[in-house]
Predict the 3D structure of the following.
Amino acid sequence: MKIGIVKHLNARPLTWGFEKDTNHEIVPDNPAVLKDLLLNGEIDLGLISSIECIRNRQILNTYYATGVCARDKVRSILFFKNRKEEFPPGIILTDSGSKTSVALVRVLIHEESGIVPEVKPTDSKIIQDQIAKGIGSHMLFGDNALLAKWDSNLYEVKDLAQWWNGITGLGFIFALWASKKPLEVENSAFIQSLEYGISHIEEIISHELRLQETVVREYLTKELHYKVTEEDRKGFLLFGEKCKTLNLL
């Protein structure tokens, strides 16, 4: 199969088994790009933003055995709330890699303020430059969030999974495997790839040289989880309902 995998660290345990199987052709990219490749028939299977599974449920088969999930902390999806500017912000510059994260930050700000902010997909380098200058409020995703630096006097940084859990008491699913109908894949394929990743977690950690080893291990083994729980499903259903109410689908 031709399989689209998320290129960021957060997905490595999920995709490691597929990546090491020479029977598959691997296409690494952001979830938003993988969704387009999947819909266009350019890949057979893709790990995509969970909201796209809702938006395209008539076209895609979604698999709920595994996914990129978090409850108390996700670390790699951050909202940079400007301490010097009015809240809620009129517009947020958002890393465009994950459509779920873009929708979630809008839902969360609405929960806190009653207003749904506008968003502007922006290159992460521009966002990081704005953060360095203390201008505006922003959202960063994936490795861009993991490696971000900021002045805590200028920004209150909110972890989106922690924020969601604080409001709802539930977990959250950020990415799920999907295939274009009529193709159906057995859940065992996703579980086997994850189990291979978990059994080779030290190998995965050793490949990440940009962050401290202890941080990477905590992130992949404690902060994130990859087997979808009932709490995650409930959180995802609630998220879908809130997106529908706010016309974010």
User: Anything to note?
Assistant: The domain at 2-71+171-229 is CATH 3.40.190.10 (D-Maltodextrin-Binding Protein; domain 2). The two ends are 29 Å apart (CA to CA). The CA atoms of residues 218 and 224 lie 9 Å apart. The first strand starts at residue 2 and ends at 6.
